[in-house]
Design brief:
heterodimer, B: alpha+beta, 12 helices, 18 strands, elongated
């Protein structure tokens, strides 16, 4: 995906409209989901996406190269959203707007295939993480960003991302015991051994 | 398998496995190749088994429900992008040849450029076979109903327990259809007309024991479906308007009509009516919305038209308000639902109007 996206980016800078649309359709949902975790106002997030791409298309001739298209777009959408939220807060301070200005919500929705007990454990574990740690995990597991890209989105050093991530995982680790999962893993491996024996006959 | 790759992981600790992309891929979407690779890895480095298992458990448990824009919405935003750029170009009168080119090019979404479906004889034969199969399946389905239906009349509340232990309280004039478990792995589905309060539990109906595995639970309304992840919530689906209020836990609401999904947090009230193009989401006071469970009407700065609606829904009467200005008047009260005359008196006293009860029709006149 990544080298491909960089190729589209170069084409887009030369004014290729279909490359621009590839970038748009390839990232719009990632940006939308990310935006909704900053502000739950869907219309506002859509507006920001629209403004961002309007700017990108208008300024295609003067745009430079980027390291990663995905993290560049995520940074842009985050800045725009935070700016708009700030404006909204200054202009009108009524309750409904304030509701949308809740802190970042990067809590995962735990897989519904795990037990209710484990679900409680995990929610508690995640509650112990800082907003930054939650965002790092979200960007890694949902948006599939590399550590370098995450560092760019959060505007910190790559080293800091490794640290944030490792500490987050350590918190999670304490909360998770895995007797049932051991069985599950064992079952998978056992069937694979059978398959391999079967394969080697031919 | 690549020996070099195997050795790349020999010094990995649990955290590094969790963060490794290939490792994540294997845990989430295992296939023959990755299974073989990791099995071989564990065979070569048996002392890594504990860390691999722990890491798998963590990766497996992190999951995000994605919130997406429909293809239609995506295309609409892109259109607005081009319109915005063109407008800006005219504004500044910038001479940009590329921009002039774009104005001429059509802005149809990419998705619409597909080759049409072939109406070949063979397809017709296949279609005929499939429809025959479908018809026989429908016949089978009708013969063996897969649903249970529960209903309440006017002025009646009822609480029922489903096979999985979940409790559903039905408000008056409400009907729900519940799928009977045919298959252990299938989601439990509920279709709602009216209003109900759900407390979704996960246990065995016969033994009362907690089920270890969570099973999907879906509530269907006219305008959206609610996917439940173990939770307490209230759903109303009346007169083409659907509304869900989440009390605790987490639900995901999906609408095919507007092709949008939204995850709710406790205290969220989400509404969608037939004519809406997007979800309306706001934080709400749960007590007012849930007063019906204690058999109370609670009106908190509610317009009279809403009060009328509530009387119609609960008593099955028709309420006529003489004029629009009266219908918009604001009313606040907390009154037992068994005291209709008292409620009508309160309306009379508050607005100085006449309320006449005439054979199933209530007239509110100045």
């Amino acid at each position: 995906m990544q080298p491909e996206a960089n190729h589209w980016w170069d084409m887009y800078r030369k004014g290729d409209k279909s490359a621009f649309e590839q970038i748009y359709f390839g990232h719009v949902n990632i940006l939308y989901d990310y935006g909704l975790r900053i502000s739950r106002d869907g219309a506002l997030v859509e507006d920001c996406i629209q403004d961002l791409f309007t700017d990108l298309w208008a300024k295609r001739a003067i745009m430079g190269k980027v390291q990663s298209v995905k993290s560049y777009l995520l940074v842009c959408i985050k800045r725009r959203l935070i700016r708009k939220l700030g404006e909204a807060q200054r202009n009108h301070a009524h309750a409904e707007k304030a509701y949308y200005e809740q802190p970042l919500s990067f809590d995962p929705d735990f897989s519904d295939r795990i037990s209710e007990e484990k679900l409680t454990h995990l929610s508690q574990a995640f509650a112990k993480l800082s907003d930054k740690q939650k965002e790092v995990i979200y960007l890694r597991f949902y948006s599939q960003l590399t550590h370098e890209e995450i560092a760019e989105v959060m505007s910190v050093q790559v080293k800091a991302i490794y640290k944030l991530m490792a500490r987050a995982i350590q918190v999670l680790r304490v909360q998770i015991g895995s007797p049932t999962f051991t069985l599950f893993l064992f079952a998978i491996l056992a069937t694979q051994v059978l398959f391999c024996c079967f394969d080697s006959k031919f | 398998m690549n020996k070099f790759l195997l050795y790349r992981y020999q010094d990995h600790v649990m955290e590094e496995f969790v963060m490794d992309e290939a490792f994540q891929q294997w845990v989430r979407h295992p296939d023959a190749t990755s299974n073989q690779f990791w099995q071989q890895f564990l065979h070569t480095f048996p002392d890594k088994r504990g860390q691999v298992e722990e890491a798998s458990e963590i990766v497996r448990s992190i999951h995000y429900s994605n919130q997406t824009l429909s293809k239609k919405q995506q295309a609409a935003i892109l259109q607005k992008v081009y319109i915005g750029v063109d407008a800006a170009a005219v504004d500044t009168a910038a001479v940009d040849t590329a921009a002039v080119d774009t104005a001429a090019v059509d802005t149809a979404p990419l998705a619409s450029r597909k080759t049409p479906f072939l109406f070949h004889k063979r397809y017709i034969a296949i279609a005929a076979t499939i429809s025959l199969l479908l018809i026989s399946m429908v016949g089978f389905w009708l013969y063996f109903p897969a649903y249970e239906t529960y209903e309440t009349g006017y002025q009646e509340n009822k609480t029922i327990q489903l096979a999985d232990g979940s409790e559903v309280s039905l408000n008056a004039n409400t009907k729900i259809k519940v799928s009977i478990d045919v298959d252990e792995n299938k989601a439990r589905e509920v279709w709602l007309e009216g209003e109900a309060y759900f407390h979704v539990k996960r246990m065995d109906g016969q033994t009362g024991e907690k089920l270890p595995e969570l099973k999907n639970f879906i509530v269907h309304t006219d305008n959206f479906d609610i996917e439940v992840l173990g939770t307490v919530f209230n759903v109303s689906n009346r007169s083409k308007k659907s509304e869900v209020l989440l009390k605790s836990g987490k639900v995901k609401v999906a609408s095919q009509q507007i092709e949008q999904t939204q995850i709710l947090q406790p205290g969220d009230l989400l509404t969608l009516s037939e004519i809406d193009e997007r979800f309306h989401l706001k934080k709400t006071e749960t007590a007012t919305k849930l007063a019906w469970r204690d058999n109370f009407f609670v009106f908190d700065n509610a317009p009279l038209s809403q009060v009328a609606r509530a009387i119609e829904d609960y008593y099955g009467l028709e309420v006529k308000i003489a004029d629009k200005r009266l219908a918009d008047k604001i009313f606040t009260a907390r009154i037992s639902r068994q005291e209709l005359p008292l409620l009508l008196k309160a309306i009379e006293a508050s607005f100085g109007v006449k309320v006449l009860n005439d054979k199933g029709t209530i007239n509110i006149q100045p």
